[in-house]
Amino acid sequence: MKQNSNNIFLAIPAIIGIFFILGDYKKDLTIFPSHTITTYIDTVDHGTSQIHDIKLLDTSKLFFSYTLGNGFQYPYIGVLFNNPSEPTFDLSEYDYVEIDLQAENSKSIPVVINIECFNCFIGRIVSRPMWHELEYVKDQRTYRLPLADFKTPNWWFIYTKNTKKDMAPPDYRYTTGLSILNCQLLPVNQKESVIINSIRLSKDYLPGTMAVLLMLVIFYLMVFFIIKLKQSQPVIFPHKNLDVGNLEDEEARSIINYVSEHYNHTDLSLSTLQRELGMTESKISSVFKKACGTTFKKYLNQIRLREAKRLLEQTDRQIMEVAYSVGYGNVSHFNKVFKTSEGCAPNEYRKKLRKNT
């Protein structure tokens, strides 16, 4: 039951992390192919730019071609994506715009998101453009433009008589449309063609996911080190002066007393205890497990090693004598058991003690 409770405790943070990640999920918002397509051109400002063709290819690709003309100082044409049935739509929960397009001669293509904002100078709501220059590369089709990189152009502040310090941060909850404009570097009278395959808004889950994973790693590392720390605490097994006053079971008292008195006999084993005390080996093992929390073999080794360390520290006996004195009939086996327990051989242990005194 305790083990099951521990497992549940360890699983809870991972479950919470998974729910956090899933709870942060936001379905992509498709702008194209989905929203209504309209165009605008500089002819309203006495320009002579032309849109030669605009059409859907296979219902999922938008093709348009244009030529910039004279007549207006800054010639322009644009393709606007919006939804007449919803004057505004919310982009505030998304992190970037992903655009898949192809162009013939363009190098820098403006992508504009129009949002509603209050113009303090004229006292009413106006459309505020958020501008990002897409640096077009011939061999690349898909571009990710972070919303945080979209900026309001300087000409808009001049036109609306607002200053940057007077404007609040852009609020994408009130988006009215998204536009793809002409390349700003194209000369007039040069024909250009563009194919737009898709435009969508997406959320970046990597930072949140990495934060959750980092917290889980820190948590489980802490649990791991706490467990290792508890396991590394020394377990002291008393021998000749063992206090067994609290053991009511006479069998347990007689077993422990016998081992405490005869641990230095090389032939001491479960068979010896069975023969001397008249109990079965399984009974003796069960008593040891219940009374001492360990096995007979481990209990015996701990007693012998404790006495061996005392002899190494307080006497000048040879390693072989120490091994035989505490009940080991084989020096190699004694060295192996000692090194496993203490992390060094008996002679090294003695040298460290003498060096520290």
Question: Secondary structure elements and their pairing?
Answer:
Elements: H1 2-23, E1 29-32, E2 36-41, E3 50-57, E4 61-67, E5 77-82, E6 96-103, E7 108-119, E8 124-135, E9 142-146, H2 154-160, E10 175-181, E11 191-202, H3 206-232, H4 250-262, H5 270-277, H6 281-292, H7 296-314, H8 319-325, H9 331-342, H10 346-356
Antiparallel strand pairs: 1-11, 2-5, 3-4, 4-11, 5-10, 6-9, 6-11, 7-8, 7-10
What pattern of helices and strands is seen along the backbone?
HEEEEEEEEEHEEHHHHHHHH
Cα Rg = 41 Å
How far apart are the first and last residues' alpha carbons, in Å? 49 Å
- The number of distinct β-strands equals 11
Shape: rod-shaped
What attributes characterize this protein structure?
rod-shaped, 6-stranded antiparallel sheet, alpha+beta, about 25% strand
Write structural notes for this entry.
- The chain is an alpha+beta fold.
- The protein has helices at 2-23, 154-160, 206-232, 250-262, 270-277, 281-292, 296-314, 319-325, 331-342, 346-356, and strands spanning 29-32, 36-41, 50-57, 61-67, 77-82, 96-103, 108-119, 124-135, 142-146, 175-181, 191-202.
- Strands 1, 3, 4, 6, 9 and 11 form a 6-stranded antiparallel sheet that branches. A 5-stranded antiparallel sheet has the order 2-5-10-7-8, with no helix packed on it.
- The chain starts with a helix and ends with a helix.
Entry summary:
The protein is built from ten helices and eleven strands. With 357 residues, the protein is an alpha+beta fold.
